[in-house]
């Protein structure tokens, strides 16, 4: 009986989203796409450069905002989005580091060498030092630049730190996830350290303060101490709502009737912590005189982690996958400077687009940063014009486990379909290799989840393949694979992957270095390599060979061990 009821719910849910009414059998034609990403657009006629507040949340699922029909209440986000422009064709990356690197550089992962996995705490790796970052361009335009929150773009050298990459001030964590109160992070058994930094120093005195509140308070202090007559850029990268699921107990009370414990804690973190923090930041903008000349951008960094409270329903997949549930994000822009407010935009926007868009708003110079993959999408957002973007390279990852059933033959002799890759061109989306966990996972509000809900949407066939094609405009939930019906489209998109792959640089994914252990840094995570240390792996993407076999120290042997272990274990960890 329960199964029938759930099946009925599934059908009603799909109808409520208008899915069955969409004409998915009439896909648009694949057209030639612009290869020059720097389409020019005149900056808006503002009286002075606007203040820019960029808010990035961590692991917030597509379904986990009020205006997407969620069971989680987000009154502040709902109001800001309703009064601004909702971006409902907005794309991010499936995991942390890739989204952040593309935001900061305006370039795809294949053009920074960060196309595989994330930057891990013990890796001698960081955002390439030759990349001119978004805050650096804003500094050139006369902005004061500040970062609050999660960095996750590497820190093995001091040159990699936020304060060396364009930010005047920094308060936050350098690694991927920390305890919300103690700021401890463990990168394996016995490899634990403190990770909260003020500038380039360890902020031991801030321990015990809940990070979401601490970060919002810091933004208010920055605004209070700055003059609204001078342009300011604040990048607020909340740790919320990444695991561990921690929230002050009094905030969980609102969701006490929610049966699933993980969902209950997650909901409290979204509503009464993160949403409230955004409210306080908006209030501070108004109190200190910034609001009337401000642009607030809100974005998630990747899809929700479905077994840690998040939900991407009704999209397919989850964090770490190239299905829509992993790469379609929550995004909106709120600003008094928008010409056409209170609307929903279906213009195609990608996280790389913020770089040229914000630099253009700031009246900055983009002529000395050629080859950006992002577009200036402000006319599409503010005036409702057509987006200059017609395609998105989701990624090409040559190191990810190759699909068992992929081959060059399946790729028309032009592309090995065992390689994990994904691209969207206009209405069409192509995936090759192993795109990641592919189920549709309903909101986990029931006490016994996954249980019968798991069986409801469990994918039981179609796994013995390595190519998928969807008309993503007509079929946003990726239920109808058209790769067999439209081989012509498959071939065209494979050729686009080939074109992109010709421009890719070697993967930067070095072995972990034992010198990174926090015990060697006073118990805290932080830089461990000197300026004189050379990164031999950068040129080839491969571990360096020993140049002097007679002089091997203990730490060299450890490095060799970790390199060998790296190839077998690291590529599967997210």
UniProtKB/TrEMBL annotation:
SUPFAM superfamilies: Alkaline phosphatase-like. Residues 516-549 are annotated as: Disordered. CDD domains: 4-S. InterPro entries: Alkaline_phosphatase_core_sf (IPR017850), ARSB (IPR047115), Sulfatase_CS (IPR024607), Sulfatase_N (IPR000917). It comes from the Eukaryota. Keywords: Calcium, Glycoprotein, Hydrolase, Metal-binding. It holds the Pfam family Sulfatase. Residues 530-541 have a biased composition (Acidic residues). This is Arylsulfatase I. It comes from Apaloderma vittatum (Bar-tailed trogon).
